[in-house]
Amino acid sequence: MSLTPEQQAEIDELRSSPTPTLRVVSDGIEKHLYKAIPVLDHGFVRVIDYMGDDAAICQAARVSYGKGTKSVQNDEGLIRYLMRHWHSTPFEMCEIKLHVKLPVFVARQWIRHRTANVNEYSARYSILDREFYIPAPEHINAQSVVNNQGRGEVLSPEQTAQVLEVLKADSARCYDNYQNMIDEDGIGLARELARMNLPANIYTQWYWKVDLHNLLHFLRLRADAHAQYEIRVYADAICQVVADWAPAAYKAFEDYRMGAVTMSAQMMVALRLMLKGEEVTAESTGMSAREWREFQDMIS
């Protein structure tokens, strides 16, 4: 992980000067404030600010739904009820602002979640650092033969070495050309033009602010075992933070989202027939081969 001296100085200063507040404070997330959680080879995630906690979710729910929540006797039970029945607005009462350093190709995946506020480091005004994501050998895989957007088996040591050599050489060459183009003693090209030559594995940074409801949706997709490894490790790091920030909400999220499955009507029919001891096939239920395979994974 690479923090600049200026960033580390900022973290040290902020953590050494706590200020009293009358607003809700989550002790769990306070320990994460400003600290950088390492991700990949040069990346990190750090909490800049937050609002609300488990209690804020319950407070909002009781205002919103009034008598409808009186049968729920405690905050944890209420949160689990809200999560189980797909209520969203109470979870939107909590927000978090993260500082993330990540490769550009991961950022392009991440930004597809359009329910957050983002401010990214601008290569129009500033010069990007000479830092590139180079995967570890165990994460260099062949194309999957069953999933067009996934990875298959790890490449052989010889192939892996070849890939690493290409990645390192191309990254260095692109940055050398970038530096020469923007150098006043070189070409003197505008930074906004020179950046187009940089590879997608160079690191960028942004501030990302999102409410808890939309953050959990992001985590449900990106912390899933099927997500691309390079974004999944960021999601895993954020999961650590959320588990400390709003533990009851995160536990409900684990139980009703991450640890649960969603079945189609055809799947439910097939499951009921199987429980009755009847033989069921993909053809008899009208499922496609892929859906049948997913169904088998769910019940195995």
UniProtKB/TrEMBL annotation:
Cofactor needs: FAD
Main EC class the enzyme belongs to: transferase
SUPFAM superfamilies associated with the record: Thymidylate synthase-complementing protein Thy1
Keywords: FAD, Flavoprotein, Methyltransferase, NADP, Nucleotide biosynthesis, Transferase
Coiled-coil blocks: none
Reaction catalysis annotation: dUMP + (6R)-5,10-methylene-5,6,7,8-tetrahydrofolate + NADPH + H(+) = dTMP + (6S)-5,6,7,8-tetrahydrofolate + NADP(+)
Annotated GO MF terms: flavin adenine dinucleotide binding; NADPH binding; thymidylate synthase (FAD) activity; thymidylate synthase activity
EC number: 2.1.1.148
Transferase found in the keyword field: yes
InterPro entries reported in the protein's UniProt record: Thymidylate_synthase_ThyX, Thymidylate_synthase_ThyX_sf
GO biological process: dTMP biosynthetic process; dTTP biosynthetic process; methylation
Binding site for dUMP: Q109, W110, I111, R112, E120, Y121, S122, A123, R124, R195, R222
Residues reported in the UniProt entry to bind FAD: T89, R112, H113, R114, E120, D211, L212, H213, H217
Pathway note: Pyrimidine metabolism; dTTP biosynthesis
Cofactor comment: Binds 4 FAD per tetramer. Each FAD binding site is formed by three monomers.
Origin: domain of life: Bacteria
Active site: R222 (involved in ionization of n3 of dump, leading to its activation)
Function of the molecule: Catalyzes the reductive methylation of 2'-deoxyuridine-5'-monophosphate (dUMP) to 2'-deoxythymidine-5'-monophosphate (dTMP) while utilizing 5,10-methylenetetrahydrofolate (mTHF) as the methyl donor, and NADPH and FADH(2) as the reductant.
Subunit structure: Homotetramer.
NCBIfam families reported for this sequence: thyX (TIGR02170)
Record HAMAP family: ThyX (MF_01408)
Family to which this protein belongs: Belongs to the thymidylate synthase ThyX family.
Protein name according to UniProt: Flavin-dependent thymidylate synthase
Protein's organism: Shimia thalassica
Lineage start: Bacteria, Pseudomonadati, Pseudomonadota, Alphaproteobacteria, Rhodobacterales
